[in-house]
From TrEMBL:
Family, as annotated: Belongs to the DNA repair enzymes AP/ExoA family.
Primary site of residence: nucleus
Cofactor details (free text): Probably binds two magnesium or manganese ions per subunit.
GO biological process, one term: base-excision repair
GO CC list: mitochondrion; nucleus
Listed EC numbers: 3.1.11.2, 3.1.21.-
Stated name of the protein: DNA repair nuclease/redox regulator APEX1
Catalytic activity: Exonucleolytic cleavage in the 3'- to 5'-direction to yield nucleoside 5'-phosphates
Organism: Chaetorhynchus papuensis (pygmy drongo)
Site feature Interaction with DNA substrate, where: 226
PANTHER family linked to this entry: AP ENDONUCLEASE (PTHR22748), DNA-(APURINIC OR APYRIMIDINIC SITE) ENDONUCLEASE (PTHR22748:SF6)
Residues under site feature: Transition state stabilizer: 130
SUPFAM superfamilies reported in the protein's UniProt record: DNase I-like (SSF56219)
Domain Endonuclease/exonuclease/phosphatase: 1-226
Amino acid sequence: WVEEEAPDVLCLQETKCGVSAVPPEVRALPGLPHQFWASAEGRPGYSGVGLLTKTEPLNVTYGIGDPEHDADGRVVTAEFPSLFVVCAYVPNAGRGLVRLEPRLRFDAAFLEFLRRLDAQKPVLLCGDLNVAHAEIDLCHPRANRANPGFTPQEREGFTRLLGAGFVDSFRHLYPEARGAFTFWTYLGGARARNVGWRLDYAVLSRRLLGSLCDSKIRSTVAGSDHCPITALLAV
C-alpha cells in the first residue's frame, strides 16, 4: 500500500521497535531512503515513532525538550525548506485514567514545543493524538465521557492546540462528516460495524491552509486497529 501511495513523507506511530529492529522490508521501501526512528529507552516493545522521507530533511530532532516524556520516543520532527513535519504518538491516559495527569503534562509541553516551531516556519503535525475532539469524532460519545481519549481535560487540550493557531485539516474540510473514524478496537467486530474513534490527525499551522489540497481517512486500508490518514499539501 505504501509503495502504491508513494508518499513524500510517511509517519508511523506506536512502532514498538528500536532502530535495530526495523524490518528489512521497511528499511528497503523504495522512494523513502531517509528514515528516522525513535523508541522508548530501556522499554522494548513500547511506544516509538518513525518518520520516512523521499528527500533529505534540512534537520531532524527527537523529542520535545521535556525529560519527563522524551525517553518514551514519541516525537520526531523533520525540517524542510517550507515547513516542519512532526510525527507524534501522544500518551494514552490509560485504563481507569491512571495516566491522565502525565498525559495532560505532555499536552502542555507539546503545545509549547509546537508553538516554538511555528514561530520559525509553518508546522504539519501528523500522528496518533489519542483524543477524539468532539462528539462527532467517536461512535458512542455519551458512554465514553470518562474514558481515556474523551475526557473533558484531553478534549480541552486539543481545543487549546486549535486556539494557538493550528487547524484540524480533516474537520476543516469536512465539518459535518459523520462516521469518519481512524481507530476501531479488535473486539466485537467493531470495525465491520464502524464503531470507532477518530484519534489520528493531520494538524497544520493556520497559514498553511492555502496549501491544503485534501485530508483523507483511508478506512479501507487494513493491517492495524488504526487506518492510515493522508494529508495532501501543495508546498
